[in-house]
Design a protein that fits this description.
Elements (H helix, E strand, L loop, with lengths): L1 E11 L6 H9 L6 E7 L6 H11 L3 E5 L6 H11 L2 E6 L5 E2 L3 H12 L3 E9 L5 E5 L4 E3 H6 L9 E3 H4 L11 H13 L1 E13 L13 H11 L4 H33 L1
Parallel strand pairs: 1-2, 1-4, 2-3, 6-10
Antiparallel strand pairs: 4-9, 5-10, 6-7, 6-9, 8-10
Helix pairs in contact: 8-9
Amino acid sequence: MTDGLVSIITTLYNSGDFIERTIKSVLAQTYTNWEMVITDDCSVDDGPSVVESYAAADPRIRLVRLSSNGGPGVARNNSIMEAKGQYIAFLDSDDTWMPDKLERELELMKSTGCGVVYSSYLTCDENDRITGLVECKNRVCYWRIVCDNAIGFLTMMYDRKVTGLVLLPEIRKRQDWGLNILLLRKCRVAYGVKKPLASYRIRNNSVSSAKFPLIKFNIAIYHDILGYSRLKSVLTFIFVFLPFYLGKKSINRFKSFFRRRYS
């Protein structure tokens, strides 16, 4: 492990149209002590070739290829196992960061002494049009992350010196929420930067774009990660997760409407 180094964990799967913008947002970071470990999950487009061209020009960028498609959790864990940094941050191959993302979050991490930080983020469509703002809370504690994933994964970063090396649960979906739960189980609280420091792209065919099929994976988090019984997992999803999730969405929609109406 290299002190002060940020390892940026990126998965690549058929994102040839977007990966260049993702890499450029990393190259533009004001904090320059980073490495970008990109695991290709058997893409069939030109994404890996784009990464290879940038890796040839900048040794901080590395491409690792999987021999078979394993899904986002497997690919992210592969990058984590290849990582050398003290800090682990996550950026998918169709999302981007603001130039001061790493600098601002590292400052917050050092000032609070916490092991996990995150920020607010923008949402955009496939043509880079801004569609919304997701405002983060100042702090998220363990009980809150169990209720609903209140941390945008593309903004999250953790310190291995505080939490140890923590891998994602290798389930097909919602493994990002599972990792946040595991991290806050260790350090109990995470802190957020209110300024939006990233942009999350909503794609029509993305794994997370269809919400209804995710229900069974949400329930699996309670059963497989927290060890709840099947009945308790279902009841927790209905009476805890859904009210938090729907309330959060309603508030965000109201805030977006208010900004558009009065800006």
